[in-house]
Design brief:
Strands 1-5-4-2-3 form a 5-stranded parallel beta sheet, sandwiched between helices. Strands 8-7-6-9-10 form a 5-stranded parallel beta sheet. It folds into 2 domains: 160 residues, Aspartate/ornithine carbamoyltransferase (Rossmann fold, 3-Layer(aba) Sandwich); 147 residues, Rossmann fold (3-Layer(aba) Sandwich). The longest helix is centred in the C-terminal third of the chain and has 35 residues. The chain is built from 11 helices and 10 strands. It starts with 14 loop residues before the first strand and ends with a helix. It is 40% helix and 14% strand. The chain has 327 residues and is an alpha/beta fold. β2, α2 and β3 form a beta-alpha-beta unit. Bound molecules: N-carbamoyl-L-aspartate. N-carbamoyl-L-aspartate binds next to α2 and α6.
Length: 327
């Protein structure tokens, strides 16, 4: 079982924009904090007063089922008030800029902005424009830190740790913020990451990433302890990266047949939404090796931990600021 390090680190980040710049100990601190919050979900009254009187705004400029509802529930469980912002029902459709929108929401007294945006870097831009905490819920192809945190949280629970673990990430790596955040988290935690997919779906700078690359799933399947199947991001594709969907499934789909050749305890993951029959067969997605719904359940505890930690860092920053101006 992984050792708890909660007391060792003082979390100092009032924003969570990505995992690339976090240290191993900081990632472990989030996971340890999430473990504490998981217990709340087992109580009959599933609430803690950690963010009572605070306001969280969910600013989603892209569609979402899991991430959005998970952040809403996480904020509710911490007793915060939640504002749901949707692009189409807002003044963004009248031409208001992202920064103006964020500043106007901040003027109402919000404490934490959770933002998903199609442009990489949008959460960072917002974090520089307002005083509230900013949490990235997915920005373009860049990062999706809470998804990767819930993925590594799940791996740690199921596998007990990361040393010597081989994790395959399969499919549309080029357009996947989930893959990018997973690469940073897993490599820092000590796992070996193998990116698997056709050359057309690999990012252009793949040799600069701390990963191994395989253009064949069958060549590495038997080595893997964990496999994370990505959705093809059709909405982000320009042109045809492979001849046909059937051919993609044939070479890179996780099928019942492939599962017979894999390690018997291979852990099967998917960030959702699943395209059944394309990247993964239904029997595998719903089968005994799948932890897909556990990932979703863990997302709640991980997001509670993130909201709690960024808010604590903001309180600490205010305290230090007051002290400096007094002294
Ligand atoms: C992912 C996303 O939006 O990046 N989904 C998610 O947050 N669970 C992956 C995807 O859309 O394929």
């Amino acid at each position: 079982m992984a050792r708890r390090r909660t007391d060792k680190f003082r979390w100092r980040h009032k924003h969570l924009l990505g995992l690339r710049d976090l240290r191993r100990g900081e990632i472990e601190h989030i996971l340890d904090t999430a473990e504490g919050f998981e217990e709340i979900s087992t109580r009959s009254i599933k609430k803690a007063p950690v963010l009572r009187g605070k306001v969280v705004v969910n600013m989603f400029f892209e569609d979402s089922t899991r991430t959005r509802n998970s952040f809403t529930l996480a904020a509710n469980r911490l007793s915060a008030d939640v504002i749901e912002f949707t692009k189409t029902a807002s003044s963004v459709s009248k031409g208001e800029t992202l920064i103006d929108t964020a500043r106007n929401l901040e003027a109402m007294g919000i404490d934490i902005v959770v933002i998903r945006h199609g442009a990489g870097g949008a959460p960072k831009l917002v974090s520089r424009s307002i005083n509230a905490c900013v949490v990235n819920a997915g920005d373009g192809f860049n990062e999706h830190p809470t998804q990767a945190l819930l993925d590594v949280y799940t791996i740690r629970k199921v596998c007990g740790g990361f040393e010597g673990l081989k994790v395959g990430i399969v499919g549309d790596i080029a357009h996947s913020r989930v893959a990018r955040s997973n690469i940073w988290a897993l490599s820092k935690l000590g796992a070996q990451v193998i990116l698997i997919g056709p050359p057309t779906l690999m990012p252009s700078c793949v040799e600069q990433l701390p990963v191994r690359v395989s253009y064949s799933l069958d060549a590495v399947l038997e080595e893997l302890d964990v496999i994370n199947m990505l959705r093809i991001q059709f909405e982000r594709l320009g042109g045809n990266p492979f001849p046909s969907v059937r051919e993609y499934s044939h070479f890179f789909g996780l099928t019942v047949d492939r599962m017979k050749r894999a390690k018997p305890d291979l852990v099967v993951m998917h960030p959702g939404p699943i395209n059944r029959g394309l990247e993964i067969e239904s029997e595998v997605a719903d089968g005994p090796n799948s932890v897909i719904l556990q990932q979703v359940a863990h997302g709640l505890a991980v997001r509670m931990a993130v909201l709690f930690l960024v808010h604590q860092a903001a309180i600490e920053e205010q305290r230090e600021h007051r002290q400096k101006h007094r002294g």
